[in-house]
Amino acid sequence: MSHILVNVAWPYANGPRHIGHVAGFGVPSDVYARYERMKGNDVLMVSGTDEHGTPILVEAEKEGVTAQELANRYNRVIAKDLCDLGLSYDLFTRTTTGNHEHVVQELFKQCLKNGYIYKGTQKVAISPSTGRTLPDRYIEGECPICHTEGARGDQCDACGNELDPDELINPVSKINGETPRFEETEHFFLDLPALAEANLAWLNTREGWRTNVINFSKGLFKEVKPRAITRDIDWGIPVPVAGWIDNPNKKLYVWFDAVIGYLSASIEWARRKGDPEAWRAWWNDPKTPGYYFMGKDNITFHSQIWPSEMLAYNGQGSKGGETGELGPLNLPEQVVASEFMTMEGKKFSSSRGIVIYVKDILSRYPVDAVRYYISIAGPESSDSDFTWAEFVRHNNEELASSWGNLVNRVANLIAKNFGQIPALDEDSMTDEDRALLTETRGAFDSVGGFIENHHQKGALLEAMRVVGDINKYISAEEPWKIKDDDKRLATVLHVAAQAVSDANHLLAPFLPHSAQKVWEALGGKGTFSPLPRLEEVEDLDKPGFHYPIITGDYVMGETVHPWESEPIEVGAPVAKPTPIFAKIPKEAVEEELARFDEALAARRAAEAERLAAAKAELADSAGKSEGKAEDKSEE
């Protein structure tokens, strides 16, 4: 048994997550984790809500609540959505825990001690109307490199280059359209140039990465600059340095602390388990691989920033240094980044109203239908488009007609003719029987190989090809016509049931909810496909601070079944089945498109009204300032 670390990108707690988000980080990570558990490996899958940074403050101010209140609300919303989606976290937590603060400060102090963090000055964007620091992402303008409009103050999505907001041409605030002013303030910087050689040397050893990910990652080192890791903000983790620790307006910035969450969540998991050092098996053992799942807009933070922070902590950059008390930290084995998913040809955007929230789609459609569509048509290696027509087609033609109908037909024939799993009569077996079982058993290697190499679409296509061949076997053997040979009928239905059971194992990482139903339909008892659960807990270091976590029980032989053909139990009772997958009415496509258009119009109207009010307030404030200036000149 090997240890496998599955680190899942941290959803930002300024609103509910949409399908585009979970297509990148959610379902792919869960499929992989479930597969590795079925292989018998000891998986630790962690994440949580990312809750610091100026965007949280901006949204909280808009809603008239505190930043903590806003984070608390969306932490609960996001945790429930991801749990309902069946994501099998060992721990899904948050970045406002006392544990996370301690771990982040420990990394900061050791990196500072090793010389990879230093003090300097930087120009920051200030809102003229509020005097507050503007987040880099909330400033847009023309990219100074490729000259594309709409580049953000932290990165240009068109050319992929990192930016500082003062580099933008004609920068404006996305909040109210005003032009920010830039002021020089003191900050701490992560010395990325001093870590670049070691970081790039590590990248050059990586094998099996998606081509776009490794090429983009190496391209980040063509020109490397130090990055400020603090901000003039009152919401975040205190900077653990004398003269800074008690300063309410200087905090470690969100992008520095969020990636450390993988480590802090692992430590929290171990503490909650009652074995505070258990996390080290996944972080200090160089033989333990760590896989990081995310959308492609997060590659920078996982192939440059987080590895640089770990190298700095380990003392492995050009300045040398010592490893801190957490021990040498393993760099990622692989950064598994998906491309973008659009919606009906438009880029997902909550602020622009182009969105399908997880909670909304799960309230109207089966969860495994959503997981299946994300897996078969998601943005694994190229951008993909979510369309309601394709969502309905995949569900109806593949899940309901092919897989669901197969399970229902086999279970119904067994229930009608025997009422239990019939015995296999070796003497009545044909070459066709043996060929089918050889195929389904062999599919564990082929499907598993696809999943191990993060080609989940290929894995699902291969599993569904097997389903198709089982259907062909049933159609060819026509067991409903076997009237006078009970042994042959029993053999055909036993072979069919075994093949369906094998296919169910193959599909279980993708379809955990329905996999349990298929297992039970064929007489299986107990848990076949474990699901996560929400638990309300108290913070380990901040008494009175309560929040939900996602966790679960994933134990081989108890709640997890092996990645291999398991013999079905002869004599297990099989009752007349109920359909596991239902077809979605074709009318749903037009209903969803109409619902989307209506919601989009409402969101755009509300946003236009909000922006107009902000501009009016800005103009009114400017008018009053001019009036005061005139009054003073008259005096």
Summarize the structure.
By secondary structure, this protein is of the alpha/beta class. The chain is built from 19 helices and 19 strands.
What labels would you give this structure?
Rossmann fold; alpha/beta; 19 helices; 46% helix; 3-stranded antiparallel sheet
CATH C-level category of the domain at 3-120 and 186-338? Alpha Beta
As laid out across the biggest beta sheet, the strand order is 3-2-1-13-14
- Characterize the largest beta sheet: strand count, sense, and whether it forms a barrel: 5 strands, parallel
Number of strands: 19
Task: State which percent range the strand residues make up.
Answer: 5-15%
* General shape: globular
Helix content: 40-55%
For the CA atoms, what is the radius of gyration?
Answer: 27 Å
Q: Span from first to last CA?
A: 84 Å
**Poorly predicted regions:** none
CATH superfamily of the domain at 3-120 and 186-338: HUPs
- Helix count, DSSP H or I runs of 4 or more residues: 19
Mean pLDDT: 93
CATH architecture identity of the domain at 3-120 and 186-338: 3-Layer(aba) Sandwich
Tell me the structural class. alpha/beta
CATH fold assignment of the domain at 3-120 and 186-338: Rossmann fold
GO molecular function: ATP binding; metal ion binding; methionine-tRNA ligase activity
Binding site for Zn(2+): 143, 146, 156, 159
Catalytic activity: tRNA(Met) + L-methionine + ATP = L-methionyl-tRNA(Met) + AMP + diphosphate
Region (Disordered): 612-635
